[in-house]
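Workshop exercise sheet. Pairs work together: one partner reads the sequence aloud, the other fills in the structure field after running the prediction. Swap roles for the next sheet.
Pair: D.N. / O.F.
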Amino acid sequence: MKKILLTTFFLIAAFSIQSQTIFGKWHSTNEETGEVDSVIEVYEKNGKAFAKVVEIKNPKRKNAVCDLCTGENKNKPILGLNILTGLEKDGEEWSGGKILDPRNGKVYKCYIKLETENKLKIRGYIGFSLIGKTAFWTRAL
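Structure field:
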């Protein structure tokens, strides 16, 4: 019985620790429709945060490409596309990287911050963070 309780405790603790991080899968919501349109996976590589599109909800968009992108992302499939690159931890937020909006092909400076264990704030901007747009992703449970 003690073994079962101890195992349960460690599983709950591990889940709690995992949910207190920016890393994992997140739902991105289309601001026009208010519906979840994709799942984004935020991951760590060499101490920096990155994110890629791992699921597209609309079956008609599963094979969509980033036709509005420029450079190396031009006409790349959106599914699997890295949209968040090179953010470094700075206190409570991750900053210093860039975010690509596949809807318009534009790249912005950005920072992200965990608002709650299941809500991630993403701020994309040009120049100063005062001039930009904020989105919120919810954890994909």
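Discussion prompt: Confidence is low (pLDDT under 50) at residues 5-18. What would you look at next?
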